[in-house]
Predict the 3D structure of the following.
Amino acid sequence: MTSGNPRIYIPHTNGELTQLLRRHPDARIYAGGTGLLYPDGVRRLTLPPVLIALYGVEDLRRIARTDQHLDVGANATIRAISRVAHNVVPQLLTDTLPHIVPPGLRNLATLVGNVCTLERVMTSVPTLIALGAIVEIRRAGGGRWIPVARFHGGSTEAPLAPGEVVTRLRIPLDRYDVQLFRKTEDTRLTMAAIASGSKRTIENVRIVIGSSAATVLRNRELEAELAGRKAPLGRREINQAAERMRFAARAADPTFTSFDLYRIAGFVTTFLYRVGR
Amino acid sequence: MRVRFTLNGKETHVECDPGDRLGFVLREHCNVRSLRLDCAIGRCGSCLVLFEGLIVNSCIVPMFRAVGADIMTVEGLYGTQSLVDVERGFERASFEPCQYCACAKALLTHAIISETAEPRRQELAVQAQTVRCRCTSYRQFVEAIELAAEHRRANDER
Ligand SMILES: Cc1cc2nc3c(=O)[nH]c(=O)nc-3n(C[C@H](O)[C@H](O)[C@H](O)COP(=O)(O)OP(=O)(O)OC[C@H]3O[C@@H](n4cnc5c(N)ncnc54)[C@H](O)[C@@H]3O)c2cc1C
Ligand code: FES
Ligand code: FES
């Protein structure tokens, strides 16, 4: 990091952006800058040696909706998304957006910047994984789509190769019967869950727990077992599911405290209790 | 680097580092006394400015981003009906913020009521927390914003 003579590039098109990244594969991307720049005393913020800012690319601010999904450009701010999101996106995302950054940063911070921060599991991540969101990654001469889960799924492989940039986030606009989001006051846990079904049968359940220690927890075995069961679930079934999630959490991340495990089990209980009721 | 921007309607230029905080530069180079750098990590809202018409914590904005930007602080509202609307709202709600946060709260109120003629209470409850305060109730601030909005509407209809 340097505040000496940083090189700052401000492209105006996606083409310029990917060409710049080809020439400077190790450049850091600046979206809203609220997670990238750290204080260097009261006077300045530390800038990386080479920085490519996205705010000049009009296309990356775009938020577009079809019947199936919402496409969010990499430079669309949390505030801009909140404005269009109301009554459009699944309630889970509407409930998550106000918790991502303090209000004075919402006109700067982006949702894609939140996903691309890899040091810990950021607030939007469990929600976006539960909703099955995917991101578009571009580089000079090509592109690909990958699930958000790949960014925070515990894979040792870095989701972005040098010279790559995320340009879009795609959020499916599926309907769910039950959606629940919780961020604990101490910010140690962010939890998101969805369920859908028909004729009193559970068809689809996703429960995603994110911890400040960069763990994303999902118990797919449990989710598969819950699918196909009659709703509402009985108290015993709910308690068993909550216990299994608690055990899975303990096994996945030894930094979970007993209070964290208690809160995870509580979240699962509250969520499953609502299914079918 | 030399950065040109518009401050409260006036062309301004300063010599600074690209990583200098906008809030710091406004205070130290442009003599803007209405904003403060308190937490300096983007959390408290005492450094609030209108950046391209949007509320932003200026301590987290590096100067390279301010090139060509339109920036407004509460000084830009002095002597305007817009500030009178805000003051009337505060008076009618008997809302008296301290010297420390009054400017940030006035600018925030102006921004909210300029954007939405009839802001919804639920949204205001969140927006009011842009400026951190432990000494007055957010509920009273929300009421002050609503009354300022009412004043603005009455003025606009005249
Ligand atoms: C006071 C304060 C409170 C905060 N509270 C929270 C919180 O409660 N929860 C939370 O989740 N976060 C929080 N944050 C962190 C941060 O504000 C958010 O993660 C925000 O969403 C980041 O978005 P941004 O646009 O500012 O990203 P940036 O700061 O611009 O970038 C963040 C990281 O992502 C990379 N990046 C950004 N865009 C792209 C892209 N398109 N392609 C590839 N890489 C990219 C950057 O290089 C950088 O490494 C907080 C920050 C502050 C200052
Ligand atoms: S000083 Fe900028 S938010 Fe606190
Ligand atoms: S900080 Fe000024 S009234 Fe609370």
Summary: Chain B is about 40% helix and 15% strand. The pocket of flavin-adenine dinucleotide (ligand 1) is lined by residues A 28-36, 74, 100-102, 105, 108-110, 112-114, 116-117, 122-123, 160, 165-166, 187; B 41-43, 60 (CB under 6 Å). The first helix of chain B runs from residue 22 to 28.
